[in-house]
Design a protein that fits this description.
Layout lengths: L2 H4 L4 H25 L9 H19 L5 H15 L4 H20 L5 H12 L8 H4 L1 H11 L6 H9 L3 H23 L1 H7 L3
Helix pairs in contact: 2-3, 2-4, 3-6, 3-10, 4-5, 5-6, 6-10
């Protein structure tokens, strides 16, 4: 069997992709939802999610080391975010970053931990799609939040994020740092899976 066929997604792989995508989404939704419940923790959502989804991502890559799997993860996450009423840019970010993460992992044949970790850092930035609009399209985002309900409680922090030049870069850096920590935790917890998959 040639390498192209080995790396091609099969029917059983799609089942695993669906299961792991849902696990990833549930963890991200629960942790992210809790983080966004108060104005104080609201800006830290991407960082907190990055800490908790690292293990799921690393297991996903170890169990399904095939091109296209992470793209599908991005697609499923984008659809779930859209149908649950999240701001559209977050869905776009998950879709684009899922594709990029897929190519990064594939460039290391899914066996390079460094590249897998880099891919996770990229994927972990997808939730920033909920914050970038605060700076680039504030009026549209304000209208979106007002339609969702309790905007008054979060108005101050939303306008601070959108109007203070250093906050978004700081959030990106913080998310990448947390993603690295989350990925390293995942590597430690999944050592046996990594050894079996030949990830170094």
């Amino acid at each position: 069997m040639n390498k192209a066929n080995v790396n091609k997604l099969e029917t059983r792989d799609f089942i695993s992709v669906g299961i792991f995508s849902l696990i990833y989404a549930v963890v991200a939704f629960v942790v992210g939802g809790i983080a966004q419940m108060t104005p104080v923790t609201f800006p830290f959502m991407p960082m907190i999610v990055a800490l908790f989804t690292g293990t799921v991502f690393m297991l996903y890559v170890a169990r399904i080391p095939k091109k296209g799997a992470l793209t599908i993860l991005g697609v499923i996450a984008a659809i779930l975010l859209f149908v649950t009423g999240m701001f559209w840019m977050m869905s776009v970010f998950f879709l684009i970053f899922g594709i990029i993460a897929d190519f990064i992992c594939a460039s290391g044949d899914f066996r390079s931990f460094r590249k897998n970790l880099t891919a996770y850092c990229v994927m972990a930035l997808a939730p920033m799609g909920a914050y970038i609009p605060m700076a680039v399209m504030p009026e549209q985002f304000d209208a979106f939040m007002k339609n969702k309900g309790d905007f008054a409680s979060f108005e101050g922090v939303i306008h601070s994020i959108g109007g203070t030049w250093w906050i978004l870069p700081a959030m990106v850096i913080g998310t990448v740092v947390c993603a690295i920590i989350g990925g390293l935790i995942g590597r430690k917890l999944l050592k046996k899976h990594f050894e079996k998959a030949g990830i170094v």
